[in-house]
Amino acid sequence: MSAPGIRRGTGRASCHHGELLQGVFLDATGRRCAGLVTLPMTGMGSRAEFTRRPGTPPERLTVRPGDRTKAARAAALAVAECASRLREPPCGGELRITGDIPVGLGMGSSTSDVIAVVRAVADSYGVRLAPDTVARLAVRAELACDPLMLDARPVLFAQREGRVLEVLGPRLPPLVVVGCVLGGGAPVDTLALPVPTYDDSDVRGFERLRTLLRRAVATGDAALLGQVASAGARLGQQLLGHPEFDTLTDIGRRLGALGVQIAHSGAVAGLLLDPAAPGLRDRIRGCLRALDSNGITATRVFTTFPSLPTEEFTGGPAHRGGHRPPRPDTPRRPARLPAL
């Protein structure tokens, strides 16, 4: 945090690797609400720099790249929030956003942009915003957001309301994730997906998976987490319908994976491996060979914990997946994820 009174601030936010579980859950009052648990991923992210111009009208806001309309809304909302706290009039400024998160694959690229921008604006005011405030602003900016403002804590998050339904624990069980993209890596237009409807039986099923996931996190049970992720991924297939999904799960079974996970609003997926299992590197290589032989593009290998010195494979040609169909609120970055 810079000293109060500064006029330039910076912010950063990471991404995720899709969801471990997504559906409809009950909050503390028994009300239904949409919720999800993401799989954190380090390495890639969004960065923002905001230079505020006191005395200029708040609508005089320059954004680069110019198509980041969600980020621009987030900047205006954050300026109003911070200026109000300091009892100053809101002002305009210049915002610059950079990043390397693929777009349209379900990795939280737009939320990462928004959170980095909110943090940059707050830094320019010398203000520290609590995660729930950042979440509130993010939902107002993009209607729904991922829990990236909470960093790597495993939480059940109401993405359309910007609030935590449950903190599942301090950290996920240790896992090695062999990432890949389905559908040839073509971006998914999340706005075009139908809104799923769930009955009471569906909600009870999601609540059972929530209970199992809570137990997996509390006990560090990676195998149980893999089972929950696989069940959640299969439920997500009712909406997404990736043709390679059965092939992916079959690869996981043959090579001793604990399960699979998949982005519920994108194409990124992963095979979940136990880092304590014997022959880990051979299992990783076997997964990579099997994915390749079945025409599924492998992306990178990463872990849910930072202490294991596993390799993250980022060499080789970039995977090129194209752009989302153009929409007013769609960032126009190519969907590229380093391929093995």
Short structural description:
With 340 residues, this protein is of the alpha+beta class. The chain is 32% helix and 27% strand.
Question: Radius of gyration in whole Å, from Cα?
Answer: 20 Å
SSE sequence, one letter per element: EEEHEHHEEEHHHEEHEEE
Shape designation: globular
Q: Give the strand order of the largest sheet, numbering strands 1, 2, ... along the chain.
A: 1-2-4-3
User: In angstroms, what separates the terminal alpha carbons?
Assistant: 37 Å
Q: Could you tell me the strand content as a percent range?
A: 25-35%
Number of strands: 12
Overall pLDDT, averaged?
A: 88
Q: How much helical structure, as a percent, in the residues?
A: 25-40%
Topology:
Elements: E1 8-26, E2 32-53, E3 61-64, H1 69-85, E4 92-99, H2 109-125, H3 131-142, E5 155-158, E6 163-167, E7 176-181, H4 200-219, H5 222-240, H6 245-254, E8 259-262, E9 268-273, H7 280-293, E10 297-303, E11 318-320, E12 336-338
Parallel strand pairs: 3-4
Antiparallel strand pairs: 1-2, 2-4, 5-6, 7-9, 7-10, 8-9, 11-12
Helix pairs in contact: 1-2, 1-3, 2-3, 4-5
Please give a handful of descriptors for the protein shown.
12 strands, alpha+beta, four-stranded mixed beta sheet, disordered N terminus, globular
Q: Any overview of this molecule?
A:
- With 340 residues, the protein is of the alpha+beta class.
- The protein has seven helices and twelve strands.
- The strands form four sheets. A four-stranded mixed β-sheet has the order 1-2-4-3. A four-stranded antiparallel β-sheet has the order 8-9-7-10. Strands 5-6 form a two-stranded antiparallel ribbon.
- A hairpin with a 5-residue loop joins strand 1 and strand 2.
- The longest helix has 20 residues.
- The chain is globular and about 65 Å long.
